[in-house]
Amino acid sequence: MKFEYAPAPESTAIVNIQSEYNLFIDGKFVPSKGGKRFETINPANEKVLSRVTQATASDVDKAVKAASEAYRKTWSKLTGAQRGKYLFRIARILQERAREFAVLESMDNGKPIRETRDTDIPLAAAHFFYHAGWADKLDYAGLGKNPKPHGVVGQIIPWNFPMLMLAWKVAPALATGNTVVLKPAETTPLTALLFAEVCQQADLPKGVVNILTGDGATGAAIVNHPGINKIAFTGSTEVGKIIAKSVASSKKALTLELGGKGANIIFEDAPIDETVEGIINGIYFNQGHVCCAGSRLLVQENIKEELLEKLKRRMSMIRVGDPLDKNTDLGAINSQAQLMKIRELSESGDAEGAERWSPQCELPEKGFWFPPTFFTGVSQAHRIAREEIFGPVLSVISFRTPSEAIEKANNTPFGLSAGIWTDKGSRILWSAQQLKAGVIWANTFNKFDPASPFGGYKESGWGREGGRHGLSAYLKGDFS
Ligand code: ADP
């Protein structure tokens, strides 16, 4: 007998989406100087949610001036404890309005409500709470006596965790005394605009946070503005390289959190059922739109068959569909463009001789969807083993000895994350020491905490976010 879940959709009544949005500059929503509007859609049904503004270079200039004035006249005059009060207030408002944020995020991004409700929004609030606690203790962070902020920081974020990435950027910047000009990604601007309302509700002094919607051109205008002292970027390695070049000839400080091709290494003595859950969480969480995803499964050859059988059985239970249904595990791909990219890379896997497997699943007709998938027969040279797919696609590679596992895991231009699954503590330590990755999980995967620094090696980026290390990125000085 087959049991089915009844639909359990979350109501959208709690969100009030305006038909059009202006830019948030100097504490107010203001129209652009000459910027056109563009649509943001719900990727699960392709319906238009709202029309937002493409901020122009002159809007960027206005926002930078507001942020600079706020820095000079108000924010830099406050004590750490006073700044902390605002951060605590923002954190509490985020908790109070958590359901509204979760529903809006699922609608604009396509990710399941279960994840926005249980992960994105609680973690965003936690990030503000954590940094609120640091605001009056910076003297004791081991970063020198009375460390100084940069001033105005420009922050550019991607679409995979829109609200969480905003929190990762804004919370440490404000705690350390900087003011902000932030640009959300073009496909997911709505929670950032709701956050602008939260800043008003929290009575944050005007100009301390400015939010400009727009595409890469707006991002480039922020990067190149001479009034900005530091750039923090999360996004693709490709754009990260462009930004690094632009900033190189200036005095701006820079942190980059870029792509990844994380190895999830399964040794023969791994606890197999927990490991299967960890693999699922590693690559099918958030539709695989995760820079630190465990997108390469390195499995010891003698347990490969058993593991893949169990993985197939578990993948057959993944529920793909309406992101607002509380039973959904895998939501919509964020955009048509991303869907095309996932399809193209998967087709390269077929063409290069790897073997594709997906469970039977019905995909909705409207919207952008891709089933949970893995490839076996993947060689190190295949594009699906080297390039970031940023979708629910796993490449399975086998190994015989621990040193072969490490060699294969490190054989990538990236170095963001890795996972180790084994019964032996000594093997965890041995592997972790040799893996060239910024974040390494042992017998778990995709766990995040504001106290834990996050960032990469090589083409995965520069600098760390979160924890004490993350604070240093927003303060002047050489703390390396
Ligand atoms: P993804 O491939 O994940 O969409 P991108 O790197 O293209 O990542 O986008 C991440 C963020 O960078 C988005 O907010 C996007 O608008 C912005 N962006 C894109 N191109 C540029 C650029 N040349 N300069 C600054 N920001 C950019």
In short:
With 480 residues, the protein is α/β, with parallel strands linked by helices. The protein contains 15 helices and 17 strands.
Walk me through what this model shows.
The protein is built from 15 helices and 17 strands. With 480 residues, it is α/β, with parallel strands linked by helices. Helices cover 39% and strands 15% of the residues. The termini are far apart. It has two domains: 257 residues, Aldehyde Dehydrogenase, Chain A, domain 1; 180 residues, Aldehyde Dehydrogenase, Chain A, domain 2. It is globular, with a radius of gyration of 22 Å. The chain has a seven-stranded mixed β-sheet, with helices on both faces. The chain has a six-stranded mixed β-sheet with strand order 7-6-5-8-9-17, with helices on both faces. The structure holds adenosine-5'-diphosphate (ADP). Adenosine-5'-diphosphate binds next to helix 7 and helix 8.
Topology (SSEs and partners):
Elements (H helix, E strand, L loop, with lengths): L22 E3 L2 E3 L6 E5 L6 E6 L3 H17 L6 H17 L1 H12 L3 H22 L17 E5 L5 H14 L3 E5 L6 H12 L7 E3 L4 H9 L5 E5 L2 H12 L4 E5 L5 E4 L5 H13 L11 E5 L3 H12 L20 H16 L3 E3 L15 E4 L6 H4 L6 E7 L2 H9 L6 E5 L3 H10 L4 E4 L18 E2 L4 H6 L8
Parallel strand pairs: 5-6, 5-8, 6-7, 8-9, 10-11, 10-15, 11-14, 13-14, 15-16
Antiparallel strand pairs: 1-2, 3-4, 9-17, 12-13
Helix pairs in contact: 1-7, 2-4, 3-4, 4-5, 9-10
Bound molecules: adenosine-5'-diphosphate.
